[in-house]
Structure formats: structure tokens, C-alpha cells
Amino acid sequence: MQERVYNFSAGPAVLPLSVLRKAQEELLCLPDAGCSVLEVSHRARPFDEIIIQTETNIRKLLNVPDNYRILFLQGGALLQFAMIPMNFLKNTGKKADYLISGTWSKTALGEAKTQGETNILWDGAESGFRRKPKPEEYTGNPEAAYCYTCSNETIQGVQWREYPDTGDIPLVCDASSDIFSRSVDISRFGIYFACAQKNAGPAGVTIVIIRDDLVERSPKELPKMLNYKVLSDGRSMVNTPPCFAVYMVKLVTEWLLDHIGGLEKMEQRNAEKAKYLYDVIDRSHGFYRGHADKEYRSMMNVPFVLPSEELTKKFLDGAKTHHLTQLSGHRSVGGCRASIYNAMPEEGVLALRDFMLDFARKNG
Amino acid sequence: MQERVYNFSAGPAVLPLSVLRKAQEELLCLPDAGCSVLEVSHRARPFDEIIIQTETNIRKLLNVPDNYRILFLQGGALLQFAMIPMNFLKNTGKKADYLISGTWSKTALGEAKTQGETNILWDGAESGFRRKPKPEEYTGNPEAAYCYTCSNETIQGVQWREYPDTGDIPLVCDASSDIFSRSVDISRFGIYFACAQKNAGPAGVTIVIIRDDLVERSPKELPKMLNYKVLSDGRSMVNTPPCFAVYMVKLVTEWLLDHIGGLEKMEQRNAEKAKYLYDVIDRSHGFYRGHADKEYRSMMNVPFVLPSEELTKKFLDGAKTHHLTQLSGHRSVGGCRASIYNAMPEEGVLALRDFMLDFARKNG
Q1: For A22-59, what is each residue's pLDDT tens digit?
Q2: What ipTM does the predicted assembly reach?
Q3: One of A97, A104, A178, A229 is an active-site residue; which one?
Q4: How far apart are CA A141 and CA A121, in angstroms?
Q5: What pTM was estimated for this model as a whole?
Q6: Domain boundary, last residue among A209, A227, A259
Q7: Model pLDDT for residues A58-72, shown as the tens digit of each residue
Q8: Together in a domain, A238 and A329
Q9: What's the number of CA atoms in the CB half-sphere (13 Å) around residue B245?
Q10: Is residue B13 part of a domain?
Q11: A-chain residues within 8 Å CB-CB of B2?
Q12: Distance of residue B137 Cα from the nearest chain A Cα, in angstroms
């Protein structure tokens, strides 16, 4: 194997090395299958066992109540942004409430507008997307089709601590960049979904956890691949699912259960990792400036800026020579961003911390 | 590695062993990337090189004209069944022509009906889906939005030799189960698409080759992930593409170019492989009966029946003990089916032929 770097990419992102080794070991031949997981029919027993076990692992990790289905879909979060209003907004005569806390909730709003009427409950754009709203800053529409929020804004590094209380209105949550990073109470949500390529596996599969009364509301006239009812009744196998990506989610969830010991333990680790970096930022006398307000800081994505573009470039170049890569901020906002998902080991974060301290000392 | 079987699955299906070995070798670390292809950002250089090279390989293999775009999408052929009428039928005031030659074209018709008016030009259901229509058996609507056909019906094993001539009406072709199995003239088609998991790679990516004047017709109001124009302008990276599946298509197309020597060579091999099995069927004095009429027989999927259900079960059980697996017919039609895609080696087909001969001798 060539030398592996510390990869701070926001997604696709670092995976646990033991998971990669397991996938590598089994790549030519899945145990007892006689062929690779890349070749096995989705209707054959070996894959059926994989998809069932993946669901079982997710149920266990997130303590998913029995009245929720777990789907493995394609098209990323971006297709969910459209499917949600296609299924639950269009032709209902209702509006959907949106809380806009960053790029991804704003993008979701744009997709919803192609399907029906929306209502922006709160928009953090004016404040530069540095925080989530406080409960007293917005009032949900009691007749809303649903209320939409993003759990963790990957680009701005803004994360909910306490999710909104929307009462009887289904709360729809994009958890793409923080699923499995901490315990959550799934019963708070109507739909809790996440593309896998940040914290749950590779690109190519999206996990959708959806309450069964919502599933039943999907309009019959929707195409099969856009219809939650059809996809759910077909156990995510209406057509061929992205088998390998599902298999990788199985391995990642096994790692979380068996190696990490569950989401409370994972959350502790993540809080420690994030603290290393935020402490450097807070003690740098303004050399590094974090983006988010302190109480909404993400444990997953740490965006920060340096005093100038020149220093930013020097920082990124220097980091690379220390095998610390993918630290550029999103092209829409610039600066730097360290994504420190579950699979980023503490050593990687400590290496980045040490580099940041050293760089500030020499250039501050 | 455990013992690999000969896997006659209709999809996901056998992949070239050298491709699997290459993927295995690189799984922990893509050369010069410092991380796995499962972890690399789709915006980073290593993945950009992969997706560009994959497109280059496909252009070379299929001799794709410059006025066609090549997209790597998610959702399988089933989502294309809906996207095509969403983009090119709905709100056009036109009808779409459909040629129904088996389960997959029939399924595509069902999805189109959710979006607009369709016109069945020819329906092979009455004849049990044993053939494609002759040119004199159907007349295209000169005002049709497009004319839809399936290149190779995976379940019935019925394949076009000469594609329909639809003049100025865009011909839309689902080539999921025979892309890369032979040379085709892409300029005959408006859209030529295929999910990868039969002949082009693993499940999780769909290759869409689309003429650029059609791309420009996509309605602006469609969600991004369902809009060919947006997907094309975004170079299939409007959001994160299924990176690993694209990478596997790159390896498979490299194998076709470098190891096989192109699609004419591949077609020769496929014709030889198919002949081995059809000869057994034709010389079995009715013990094995093929499904398709001779002149429409598929080179990819060879469905056949035995004299009784008991013998079918005995055949399938016996085949397994000879490491010949996944030979059951599709659950909708029963019997047996041998899928002998590009990556099925001649040895596998010969092993099946020998087993078939022996089984007929002992049980005929």
C-alpha cells in the first residue's frame, strides 16, 4: 500500500481503515457466495443477508422505533430534496416550512419550490449562516405539510444541538453530515435522511429513515423510483440497489457497534476531536477565525479563515507537506475547512492541531 | 480467496477477474491519491481524472460522435424510464411511441404513462415476447416525442439485430443488458442508456449517452437530479456521483480496450459463447426449449425450459454442485436462464454446455 494521508475531505470522506481492509479482503469473493459483492445478484441470499443486517445495525445504533422504515436509495441528498416535496407537498394544498441555516437547507428549498409552495420560517443568510435559530425566532405553520431542517450545515459548520419541536407537523431532517456522529431521538422526526459518503459509507447510497404513516401518503401516480411507498414496499429493491455501497454501510455500522461501542462513545470521541481544533482557533488571538457562533459549532466540519488569502494558500500548501489534505474551504465560501467525521482518527486531528499551532507561531 | 463459481446472474453479474484484482489492489490507496477511491473527494484531481478517462474509454469503444454527451447517473434504468418522459414528453402536447418486446420495455411504458400520453406501436405480449417486430409490423407517429425500444430484453432473451429506423424521431434505447457487447452506431439514437450492473460494472451507476439537442430541451422547472440539462452541464457532478461505480466502469472499459481489443472482438467472443448454448438447445430434441425465436435470440441472456418443473429443479441443483450458479429464470417467467455477459469466460460457458449435455443424456 502507498502512504495514506490524513484526508479532511467533506465528502466523500475518510473511512475506517479496518473497514477498508475488510472490504479489500472480501473483494474477490464474499464468504460463502462464490463471487464478489460487486457481482452477487441482489435477489440472492448473500445480498439479502447484507441488506437485512445493515438495517438491523442502523436500528440498533439509532434505536429506530418500529414504526419507521429504513430505505437505501440512490441520487444523494439532492434527490431527496425533490422527492420529499414530490411525495408530501405537491397537490396537498399546503405549504412546507423551511428553516434556512446554510447552503444545504437553501438548496433543499430551491428543489421544493419546483414542486409546491414553501414558507421560510427563518433565514440565517443575513447573519452569514453562523447559527441555527432560537425557538423564539420562528413560528411553525400549524397547517404546514412538513417542517424542513438540516442537522449540520457541512459548508458553514453549523449544527443543531436541540432539534426544533414541531409538534404534529412532521420534522424532516437532512443528517447527511452528522448521521451516526451522536445519539438522536428518531421519534422526533418524520423523515431523517443522509447520503452515506460523509459519515456512513461511500458515495452512492442514501439512508432514509421514514415514519410509516408518511410512507402511506405517497401519491400513487409518482414514478416508482420517486415514490417512498413503492420503494418501501419493495424493501429498497424495486430495482437493483447500489449493492456495494450498502455493503460498505454494513461494515461501517459494524465498526460503530463493535469497535467504537455505539453512538454515545462515538459522540464523546467526536467532541474531543472537535475541541482540539476549536481550542486552537479560540486561543490564536484572531489568527484563525471560526465561522460559526460558538454554541452552534459543528463537531463534524470546522471551517475557519486565516488573516489573508496569501496565508491561506501557504497554510494549505504547508499542510499538504505534512500529509494533511483536502483542507480547502468549499469553493462557495473559501478559507479552510477540516472535516473530522467519525472515521478521522484522533491522531489525524492532533497532527492538524500541531500544524495549526506551529503555523500560527511562525506566521502570526 | 475462496473458490469462485461460474455466476450466470442476470445482474449484478460476473466481472472480469483482472478488474476485480486491480480494484482490490488499489482499494486502500489509489495511486498518488493518498486515500481510497471510496474516500477521495469527487472535486479532487484523482477522481476528475477517473471520470474523464471513463468517458474517453466509452467514446472510444462505442465511437460516440462529438454531439453526444455521456452522463453517469444514479437510480438505474428504472429512473431513466421516468426521466425520459419527464424531460421529453410531459407538457409537449405530443405522444411517445413505445415498442413493447418484453418485461423491461413494458415497465418503461408504465413509467412513461405517469408523465404523459403514450402510443404502443407494437406489442409482443400476445406472442409471449419471443421476438422483435419486423419493420412492416409498425408505423411510427411522425409527430412522436420519441420512439422507445429496449435493445435486449434480459428476461425474455430477445435482442434487436437491426435497430428500428425512426427517421427524425429520436430513438431512445435501453441497452442495459447489451451495452459493450457489440458495436453499435450511436448516431442512430437520441438516447442510448444502460445501467452498469450487467455488462459495464457494478450496480449503482447508469450510463446515459444523449444527443446534445435533446439535452437542451429539458424543462427548466425540473428538479436538478431529474434534469438532463443540469446533470450534463454539471458533468454528472451536480452532487456527488457514485464514484466507486464510475471507477469500476473505468476498469471494465479499460479491460475491453486493452485486454479484449474492442467491441468487434468482444462481439465475436459473445457470438461464440452464445452458439455453444443454443447449439445444445437446438440439438436436444426438445429436451431444452429456448424462449426466443431463433432470429431474435439474445447473445447475452439464454432463457430455456426443461420438460418439467421437477427436472428444472434437478437441473438447477445439479448445476450448483458443478459450481454453475444463478441459473434460475426470472421469478416472473420461471425455467432457466444463463446470462453470459462479456465477463463470463468461455470456460464457464463450456462448463455449462457440458453439464447441459450430460444432464440431457441422463434425464432425456
Answers
A1: 999 999 999 989 999 999 999 999 999 999 999 999 99
A2: 0.98
A3: A104
A4: 9
A5: 0.98
A6: A259
A7: 999 999 999 999 999
A8: no
A9: 36
A10: no
A11: 29, 31-32, 34
A12: 30
